C-alpha cells in the first residue's frame, strides 16, 4: 500500500512539474547546468515568433529604415509580474520584435503567479547567468530593491518597465502612460459617452492593488475638478479581481442606483464581468461600460454596444520600447528630451524622475479595435 | 426503543441546527427588507438567485463530501478547466446537448480521480485536492494561453435570463436538484451510507458498507455537479478569464459550514446548505445595497463561518448532555 502511495505521489509531482514547465517555458532552471539549454531556447524563440507573429505593431513596416543594429548581441532579460495573461504576452511579442530588429537576445522570464518572492528568485537566477541587462515590472519595491542593488553590483544594467520602484537603483523607468493621464482620459471618454452628466459606479480588483487605486484616485480628482454634473456613487472591490464577483457587484450597483449611466471596470479581469452584467440586465445602450481592457477582451463588447471605448496603452509597443531602452543603456547612449524611436515615434524622457514615457493612453473604440491583437 | 421503530424505515427529521440556519435566514431577509428599499424588489431577489445558482449546485456535492469528513478545494479550478472546454466547444458551435454531456463527464472524471487519491492512495482530502487544484490552475493558464474567452455564444442563457412556468429558471433548477439529492441522502441506501461512513468509517466497514466506494461516489457526484455548474457559469458570464472559479471552493465550504454541516463529518443536510448559500448570498447583496465598503464582505463571511462552528459546538454539547441526562434518568428508573 505504501509503495502504491509513493508511486502515485511521485506521478502527481511529475504531472505537476510538466504543467509548470509548460507555463514557464522561458523561466531559467535553478541549477546552472541547464541554463545553456534555456539560452538556446530563448535565442530560437524570437526568430520563430518573428515569422509567425502577426501581433507586431502596424508601424513595423515603416521601421525597417532608421534602425541601427546593436553593437553586439546583448542579452536583455525582462521579468514581468506574471505570465499567461494577454497583457504580458503582448509585451513579450514587442520585446521579441525589437530583439529581432536590433540583433540582440531577449529573454522573457516570469512566473505564472504574481509574486514578489518569485521575482526575487528569478532575478537571482539571472544574476547567476550574467545577462547584460535586466528589466523588471516591479510587484513590491521593498522586496525587490536589495536584489536590484545586487544585480547592479554584479555589473548588470537594471531598469524598470510597466511598474516602477522609484527609490531603487534602476537606471530608467520605461513607463506605459502616466497614471494621471490614464485616470483623466478614462473619465473624459466616459463622460463624453454618457452625454456629459449622470451617475457612474466603479468596480475594481483587490482593494490593495496600488496601481488600480492610483487610477481611481485620479478618476475621482478629475470628476471633482471638471464635471460637476457627474457623480461617482460607489467604488466596489472584488475578490481577486474575479469576473464573477464583478458581475454580481455590477448588477447590485444597478439595482441600488437604477438611474446609473456608466460603470468603470478598473481591473482588466473585471471587464468581462461588468460588461456581461449590463447585457444580462438588458441595459445595453442605457449603461455604458468602460475600463482598462485589452482589445481582444473588449472586442465582443464593443461590437454588441455595451462598451463604446476601452482605455489602455499598446503593450506591444511598450515591450518594444523596453528593449530599445536597454540597448541605449548598455551602449551608454543618453536619452534625449524627445527621442525618435523607430517603429514607435517620439518618446519623451523626463530626466528629474528618470522616466521614459511611451505616450498618451490609447483609446480603443469600434474604429480601431480590429487593428490590435493583444 | 420499541419494536415498531426497528421495522419502520428510518426517516431522519430536520435537526434543530437546520431550523437555526433557516430562522437566521428569515431574520436576515426581514432586516434587509426594512433597511434597504431595493432589497425586496423581484428584480433584486432574482439577481441574487441567478448569481448563486452555480454555487448552490456545487455546494450540494460539497455537503456530501464534507459529511464524509472530507473536503474538496479543487472545485474552482475544476470548474475553470471545464468552463474552458465548454467555451471552446461553443466557439466551434457544437451541439449544446453534447457540450452538456462532455462538461458533466469531464467534471465527473476529475471528481472520481480526487476520490481515488483520497481512498486508494490514502492522501488526506485537503492535500490531494490542493495538489489537483494547483495542477488544474496551471492547466487553465496553459489552456487560455494569455487569450481569454470573451463574447461566447449565448447558448446556456436559460440560467441567466430564462423563465420556466413563469418562475425564474434557477428556482425550478435548484428545486429539482435539491429535491433529488435530499431524497438520495434521506431515503436511498447509497446516500444513507454517506452519513454512516462519515460517522465512523470503521463501524460502517464492519457492517458491510464499503467506505472506499462511498467516498469515490461522493467525490464523483461532486465532480458531476461541478461540471454542470461550468455550464451555468458560462451561461451567466459568456466569458472565461484567468481568475475563473478562484473563490468557488472557499465560498462553497463557507455555505456548507454556515448551513450546519459538521466539519468533523457525519452530520449535515442539503436543506441546511441551501439555507447557507442563500444566507451568504443575501448578506453579500445587502452589503452592496447598503453601500458598506467591500472590505467588510470578507470579514462578515469570516465571522459567519466561525460563528457557525461555535453554534455547532453548542448544539452538539447540549444534545450530548441531554442524552446523558436521559440515560441517567433511565438508569434511575431501573
Structure, explained:
The complex is a heterodimer of chains A (374) and B (334). In chain A, α5 (141-153) links the parallel β3 (133-136) and β4. The radius of gyration of chain A is 22 Å and the shape is elongated. In chain A, 44% of the residues lie in helices and 17% in strands. Chain A has an eight-stranded mixed beta sheet with strand order 2-1-3-4-5-13-12-11, sandwiched between helices. In chain A, strands 7-6-8-9 form a four-stranded parallel beta sheet, with helices on both faces. Chain A is of the alpha/beta class and 374 residues long. Chain A has two domains: 35-177 and 315-362, Rossmann fold (3-Layer(aba) Sandwich), CATH 3.40.50.2300; 179-312, Response regulator (Rossmann fold, 3-Layer(aba) Sandwich), CATH 3.40.50. The model of chain A is unreliable at 17-63 (pLDDT under 50). Chain A starts with a helix and ends in a 9-residue tail after the last strand. The longest helix of chain A has 22 residues, at 2-23. Chain B is mostly helical and 334 residues long. Chain B has a single domain (15-326), classed as ABC transporter involved in vitamin B12 uptake, BtuC (Orthogonal Bundle). Chain B has 14 helices and two strands; from the N terminus they run αααααααββααααααα. Chain B is globular. The chains are: A alpha/beta (374), B mainly alpha (334).
Amino acid at each position: 500500500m505504501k509503495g502504491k502511495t509513493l508511486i502515485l505521489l511521485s506521478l502527481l509531482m511529475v504531472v505537476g512539474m510538466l504543467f509548470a514547465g509548460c507555463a514557464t517555458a522561458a523561466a531559467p532552471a535553478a541549477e546552472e547546468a541547464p541554463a545553456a539549454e534555456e539560452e538556446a531556447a530563448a535565442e530560437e524563440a524570437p526568430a520563430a515568433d518573428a515569422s509567425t507573429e502577426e501581433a507586431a505593431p502596424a508601424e513595423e513596416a515603416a521601421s525597417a529604415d532608421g534602425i541601427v543594429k546593436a553593437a553586439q548581441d546583448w542579452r536583455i532579460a525582462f521579468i514581468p509580474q506574471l505570465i499567461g495573461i494577454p497583457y504580458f504576452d503582448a509585451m513579450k511579442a514587442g520585446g521579441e520584435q525589437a530583439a529581432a530588429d536590433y540583433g540582440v537576445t531577449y529573454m522573457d522570464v516570469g512566473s505564472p503567479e504574481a509574486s514578489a518572492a518569485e521575482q526575487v528568485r528569478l532575478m537571482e537566477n539571472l544574476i547567476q547567468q550574467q545577462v547584460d541587462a535586466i528589466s523588471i515590472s516591479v510587484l513590491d519595491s521593498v522586496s525587490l530593491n536589495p536584489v536590484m542593488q545586487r544585480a547592479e553590483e554584479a555589473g548588470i544594467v537594471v531598469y524598470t518597465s510597466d511598474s516602477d520602484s522609484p527609490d531603487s537603483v534602476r537606471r530608467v523607468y520605461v513607463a506605459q502612460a502616466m497614471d494621471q493621464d490614464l485616470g483623466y482620459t478614462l473619465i473624459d471618454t466616459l463622460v463624453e459617452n454618457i452625454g456629459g452628466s449622470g451617475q457612474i459606479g466603479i468596480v475594481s480588483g483587490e482593494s490593495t492593488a496600488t496601481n488600480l487605486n492610483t487610477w481611481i484616485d485620479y478618476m475621482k480628482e478629475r470628476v471633482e475638478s471638471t464635471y460637476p454634473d457627474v457623480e461617482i456613487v460607489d467604488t466596489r472591490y472584488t475578490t481577486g479581481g474575479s469576473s464573477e464577483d464583478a458581475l454580481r457587484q455590477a448588477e447590485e450597483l444597478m439595482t441600488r442606483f437604477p438611474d446609473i449611466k456608466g460603470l468603470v471596470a478598473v481591473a482588466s479581469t473585471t471587464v468581462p464581468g461588468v460588461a456581461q452584467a449590463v447585457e444580462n440586465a438588458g441595459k445595453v445602450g442605457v449603461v455604458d461600460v468602460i475600463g482598462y481592457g485589452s482589445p481582444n477582451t473588449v472586442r465582443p463588447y464593443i461590437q454588441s454596444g455595451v462598451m463604446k471605448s476601452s482605455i489602455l496603452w499598446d503593450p506591444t509597443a511598450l515591450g518594444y520600447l523596453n528593449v530599445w531602452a536597454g540597448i541605449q543603456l548598455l551602449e551608454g547612449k543618453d536619452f534625449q528630451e524627445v527621442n525618435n524611436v523607430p517603429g514607435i515615434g517620439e518618446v519623451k524622457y523626463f530626466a528629474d524622475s528618470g522616466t521614459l514615457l511611451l505616450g498618451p493612453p490609447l483609446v480603443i473604440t469600434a474604429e480601431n479595435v480590429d487593428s490590435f491583437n493583444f | 426503543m420499541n419494536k415498531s421503530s426497528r421495522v419502520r424505515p428510518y426517516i431522519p427529521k430536520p435537526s434543530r441546527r437546520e431550523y437555526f440556519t433557516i430562522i437566521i435566514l428569515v431574520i436576515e431577509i426581514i432586516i434587509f427588507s426594512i433597511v434597504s428599499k431595493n432589497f425586496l424588489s423581484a428584480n433584486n431577489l432574482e439577481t441574487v438567485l441567478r448569481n448563486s445558482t452555480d454555487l448552490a449546485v456545487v455546494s450540494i456535492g460539497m455537503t456530501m463530501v464534507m459529511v464524509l469528513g472530507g473536503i474538496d478545494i479543487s472545485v474552482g479550478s475544476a470548474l475553470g478547466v471545464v468552463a474552458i472546454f465548454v467555451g471552446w466547444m461553443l466557439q466551434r458551435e457544437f451541439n449544446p446537448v453534447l457540450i452538456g454531456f462532455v462538461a458533466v463527464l469531464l467534471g465527473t472524471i476529475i471528481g472520481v480521480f480526487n476520490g481515488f487519491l483520497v481512498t486508494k492512495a490514502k492522501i488526506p482530502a485537503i492535500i490531494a485536492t490542493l495538489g489537483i487544484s494547483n495542477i488544474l490552475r496551471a492547466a487553465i493558464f496553459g489552456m487560455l494561453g494569455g487569450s481569454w474567452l470573451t463574447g461566447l455564444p449565448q447558448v446556456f442563457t436559460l440560467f441567466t435570463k430564462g423563465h420556466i412556468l413563469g418562475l425564474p429558471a434557477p428556482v425550478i433548477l435548484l428545486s429539482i436538484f435539491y429535491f433529488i439529492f435530499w431524497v438520495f441522502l434521506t431515503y436511498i441506501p447509497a446516500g444513507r451510507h454517506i452519513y454512516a461512513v462519515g460517522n465512523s468509517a470503521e463501524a460502517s466497514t464492519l457492517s458491510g458498507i464499503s467506505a472506499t466506494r462511498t467516498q469515490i461516489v461522493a467525490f464523483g457526484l461532486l465532480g458531476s455537479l461541478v461540471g454542470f455548474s461550468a455550464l451555468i457559469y458560462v451561461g451567466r458570464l459568456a466569458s472565461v478569464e484567468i481568475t475563473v472559479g478562484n473563490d468557488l471552493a472557499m465560498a462553497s465550504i463557507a455555505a456548507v459550514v454556515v448551513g450546519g454541516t459538521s466539519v468533523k463529518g457525519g452530520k449535515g443536510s442539503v436543506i441546511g446548505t441551501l439555507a447557507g448559500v442563500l444566507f451568504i448570498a443575501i448578506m453579500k447583496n445587502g452589503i452592496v445595497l447598503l453601500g458598506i465598503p467591500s472590505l467588510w464582505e470578507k470579514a462578515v463571511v469570516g465571522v459567519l463561518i466561525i460563528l457557525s462552528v461555535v453554534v455547532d459546538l453548542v448544539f452538539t454539547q447540549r444534545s450530548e448532555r441531554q442524552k446523558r441526562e436521559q440515560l441517567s434518568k433511565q438508569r434511575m428508573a431501573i
